[in-house]
Amino acid sequence: MASISFTLPIFLTIIFFLPLKIIPTIGTNADETRIHFYYQERTKPPNATAIKVVSSPIEHANPIFAFGNIFVFDDPITEDLDPASHLLGRVQGQLVIVSLDGNDGLYTLNIHFTNLSPWTGSTLTVIGRNPTQQTVKELPVVGGTGLFRLARGYVVVTRLTPIDSPSGILTFLVNATLFNH
Ligand SMILES: *[C@@H]1O[C@H](CO)[C@@H](O)[C@H](O)[C@H]1NC(C)=O
Ligand SMILES: *[C@@H]1O[C@H](CO)[C@@H](O)[C@H](O)[C@H]1NC(C)=O
């Protein structure tokens, strides 16, 4: 069996990630179900999972958030912070910049669990305001399919990496709270 020796950077990375590591968890009481998971957005080629499909004709100080820009994304849901960790599903949707000042986006997305018991095959649909300049965003869950049929609740999406992450990979934590009746 190969012996394991930690180099210092790897060791530091592990220490750094440990307090953040949250395996997708399920907290259920009579009133609500809570689910936590990560998804990863690759913003740079090759293999980008988020692309701009419409570019605004309007000049904007921050071209990413120009009024009218439309992005689509198909981001993997992963078991933990490591983008290479186990694939649990996809977050698929679009972001349209809908305010003249670029501060408001309309986020429309489906959360599709492809490998997370007991929700494999079930989806949640989220539609709401995405405050583009904030790292923590609350969005309404407006419905779902399968075990999430008639879902009601909200998600809090936290971006854990800087928007200009040198790796080109943005990691998001999602905390979903769903009402059970
Ligand atoms: C991009 O995807 C191809 C095909 O799946 C794969 O071979 C390649 O390693 C990927 N490149 C990166 C940087 O992930
Ligand atoms: C999300 O849930 C995790 C695990 O319970 C918690 O540590 C974290 O503070 C929550 N984040 C938000 C923004 O609610």
TrEMBL record:
Membrane-spanning parts: 6-24
Function description: Dirigent proteins impart stereoselectivity on the phenoxy radical-coupling reaction, yielding optically active lignans from two molecules of coniferyl alcohol in the biosynthesis of lignans, flavonolignans, and alkaloids and thus plays a central role in plant secondary metabolism.
Location in or out of the cell: Secreted, Extracellular space, Apoplast
One cellular-component annotation, GO: apoplast
Quaternary structure and interacting proteins, as annotated: Homodimer.
Record organism: Dendrobium thyrsiflorum
Keyword Lyase: no
Major localization listed first in the record, in broad terms: secreted
Name recorded for this polypeptide: Dirigent protein
GO biological process, one term: phenylpropanoid biosynthetic process
Record-stated family: Belongs to the plant dirigent protein family.
